[in-house]
Amino acid sequence: MKTRVLLLIAIVAGWPTVVGAQHAAPLTPQDSALHVLNRLAYGPRPGEIERVARAGVLRWIDAQLAPDKIDDQIVARREREFDVLKSDRGDLARLYAEVQRARQERKRMGDTAADKPDDSPVALKGRRLAAQFQQLAVVRAALSERQLYEVMVDFWTNHFNVYFAKGADRFLTPDYIEHTIRRHAMGAFEDLLIATAQSPAMLFYLDNWESVAPGATPPQAMRLQARPLFGRRRPLFPPPRDRVPTDSMRQRAPRGINENYARELLELHTLGVDGGYDQHDVIEVARIFTGWSIKRPQQGGDFEFHDWAHDTGDKQVLGVEFARGHGMDEGIRLLKLLANHPATMHHVSRKLCQRFVNDDPPDGCVDDAVAAWQRRHGDIREVLRAIFQGPDFWAATNVRTKVKTPLEFVVSAMRAVVAEPDTSPRLAQVVARLGEPLYLHVAPDGYPEREDAWVNSAALLERMNAAMALAAGKVQGMTVALDSIDSVADIEALIGAIDDRILGGTMSQNTKQVLTRQLSGISDPMQARALAVGLALGGPEFQRQ
Amino acid sequence: MTISRRVFVKSGGLALFSLGLDPLFLARAAFAVRPSAGPPDRRILVCLFQRGAVDGLNMIVPHGDPLYYRERPRIAVPATDVVDLDGYFGLHPRLAGLKPLWDSKRLAAIHAIGSPDATRSHFDAQDYMESGTPGVKATPDGWLNRYCQHDREHQDTPFRAVAFGPELPRILAGTAPSLAIADLQAFGLRAPQPAARDRLTRAFEELYAASATGLLSTSSQEAFQAVQTLRRVDPTQYQPANGADYPRGRLGKAMLEIAQLIKADVGLQVAFADVTGWDTHVNQGASEGQLAARLAELGQTLTAFAQDLGEKLDDVVVLTMSEFGRTVRENGNSGTDHGHATAMLVLGGPVSGGKVLGAWPGLDPANRFEGRDVAVTTDFRDLFAEVLARHLGAPDLSAIFPGFTPDLARFPGAISA
Fold first, then answer.
1. What pTM value is reported for the model?
2. Greater model confidence, A54 or B30
C-alpha cells in the first residue's frame, strides 16, 4: 500500500518517471510517453513521443480522458468524405431491399448467374458503403487526436459484438456503431449497456427481436405489417455469396422464447461466465426481455416494446424478484441491476486490464478498476483513470509485452509513416487479410485480445508483406510521408533515425546489425529507406506495444 | 521439425510422457480403431463445406420412392437419368464420375443427417456445424481446431491445419495453429522478382532470429520453415497426375492445392475448403440446370482429386457437409426452401464405401420434420466424431464436441474399422 501512496504522490506531482511495482528500474519520460502512446493510442507518430514527454505524460492522459475537449477537426473533415455517414439505417435498408428485388427478378427470369456476385449498380453501391464503413474505423483510429476514445470504441465494439453480415445487421450495424457504441464509449457503463440492449442491431444479432412469451400472438394489424418480413417470396437483401444468408429474417414466425440474448448478456456483456448465474437465470432473463423488439426491421426501424409479446408472469433473477405487470421497465431494472453487479464490475474491469496492461491481467489492476467503478458508479473514464494510475500499468514487466492486434498493427504502421488514407477500402482490407475483418466476427465474444489468437506463421508473413507495402507507399488510396526520416545518406544515421522516429528507441542491437547488413550495397537512398522502414515495421519490435 | 514448443507449452510437457496412464488413453482405446493402412501421421482429413444448404434429395436421389416424384413434379431427377446405387438411392447424373469410387467401395453417402438444432438460418446453422456445438453460439473455436488442440500426438507442422480461402473459417478458428491460404503460389513474402523475394525473406528471417521473443519467435520460425518447404514444392510447377482434370474455379483450385500439399508431404493433416451456390430457392433444375451445374463442378473436382492422389488416396478421407437440407416439396418458383436433414459424402481409401448410410426416415409427411422436411436421424456430430476417431485416431471426442456424448453404437459406419 505504501508504494501505491508514494506512487500516487508522484503521479499527482506530474512526475512521469514512475516506478514499476515489480521492478525498480524507472521509466524515463520518453519510455513513459512511448508506453502510453502504445496502449492508450494506436502508437506514436514521428516526433510524438518527444511532444508527449515534454508536455507531461500525465497531462496527456488527463486530456485523453476528456475527448470532448480535444479538437479533432481533421477527422471531422475526413468524415465528410464518407458517404456512408450520410445514409441512415432507413436509407441503407431501402438500398438493400432494392438490391434484393433486382436479384429476385433476375432469378425469376431464369438468370442462372444470379448466385454469382451481383455487379449491378445498386449492389456495388451497397458493397461500397459497407467497405467504406470498415475503412472509416481505420481512418479514425489513425488520424484522430482522440486516441483513447478510438481505442475504447474498438474495445466496446468487440465487447458488444454484432455481425455486419447477418441479415438486417447489414444495414443496422453502421447506425449501431455511430449512435450506440460511439455515443457511450466514454460515458457510464449502465447507459452503454441499456443502449446496446435497445439497439436494433443487437436485438437482431442475438435474436431477441423475435423472442415472445409462449403462446403470445401478435395483434392483427401487426401480422399484416409483418407479412413481407416472414413472407416466402421476398427475402430482403442478397448475400454477396450465400455464406451469408437471406432468410435469417424470414425463417419462421416467432414461436416462443429465445434465450440467445439473455445468455450472452450474462456471460459476455455483464457478469462473465463465472459470474454466479445458472440456466434458470438465463431463462428468467429471456422472459424479462420478451417483447423487446424492432419496429419494421426490414425498413431499418427503431427499438419497439411489444406489450403483446411480453411474458406477464413473475420472474426472479439472481434471487431478485421482478414482479409481473411492469412490462418494459422490468428489463430496464434488470439492466441496471446487472450493470452495477460486482461480478460485472470484475468481469469488465478484467477485460479492460487485459486490453491496457497484460494478456493475463494482474489482480491489482482489476482491484483498482473495480474500486473506481464502485466509487464512481461505473463512469468508464474513472475506471480507466484508475488503471492508468495503478502500478501494474507502469510495471516494467508489462511494458512492450502485448502483441498488437491486426487493427493495432496496421493503424500504428500508418501513424509511423504518416499515412494519409482516403475513403477507398484498401487499409481495411489489409486489416482483414491479417485476420480481423472489421465488424465481421461471427461469434458474440468479439475479436480476442490475447496474442495467441493473432500470432501464427501465415499471419506474421502477411504482417511483413503489409509492412513492406505500407513503407513503400504501395497500398492504394494512401500516401505516406517519410520526410521525418531524412538521414538517408549514411546507413548508421538512417537506422538511428528509424529507431528514433518509428520504434521509439526500442530497436535491439541485433536488429541494428541485421539492418546494417541488409542496407549495405543498396545505392539508391530512397530504396534503402523504404526497405529499412519496411523491415522495421514488419520486424519483431514493432509487433509489440 | 520435431515436437514443437507448443506441445510442451500447451500440454505442460509432462503429459506427453504419461499418455499411457491418463484418461486420454482410455478414450483412445474405446474409439480409436485405427485401420492398419499407413502410419498415423500420414492420415489426412479434407472437409468440404457446401455453403448455402445443398438439396440432399437431388444429390443422392431416392428414385425408388414415388413420393419423391409426386412432391417434385418440376425438379425431380427422372429415374432414367439417375445413376442407381442400391435400387432405391442413386447419384444425380452430374455426379456420375463418382460411380467408380462407389463401386470400389471408396465412396459412401449418409442420408438424413443434420443438426439437432431446428434453425433454418444459414448463418446460425453454418455456425453450429463449424463450432460443433448446435444451439450454443458462444463457443469460441471450431471443432477442427479443437481436434488439433487435443490430439497432441500429431506434430504441429506449419501446414498441419490449412483452410483454402482468404479467411480462416470458423471451423478452424482457435488456439491451435492453423493457416488460411488464399493462393499457395503467393504464400510467403511477395516481391516483384524471385531474387528480391528471397533476399527479403532472408532479411526478415534474420531479424526475427535475432530479436523475436516468445510466440513471435516460434511462429516466425514456423513461417520461414513453411516458406522454405513451399519453395521446395514449387507450386508454380505443379502438374496433376494420372490425367486428373480439375474444373476451373475456386473449388477446383483449392482441391488441386490440397492434393499438391498432400503429395509434397509437408505435414498436412486437416484441410478445409468451401464452395457456395447451393441455396436454390428459384429454378433449381433437375438433371440439368442450376443445381446440376454446381453438382457437376463438385463431382468433377472430387473425381480429379481422387485421380490425382492415386495411391495416396489410401490415407485420405474427404468429408462433405452442408448446414441443412431443403424442403421435400418444390416451391412455387421451381426451387426448394430451407429444410432440415441433408446428405453428406465420405470419400477416400479408409472409407467403408458402396453404401448409403444412416437410418432413412422416408418421405412420408407423417415422418417429416415439422411436416415438411426430411427428418434428421443422424446427428452430424456422430459422423464427424467417427471420422475423427476412426480415421485420425482422435483421443478425446468429448473435448472436441463439448456437451455431446460420443457413442460407438451411433457411428454411422463410414470408416472401415
1. 0.82
2. A54
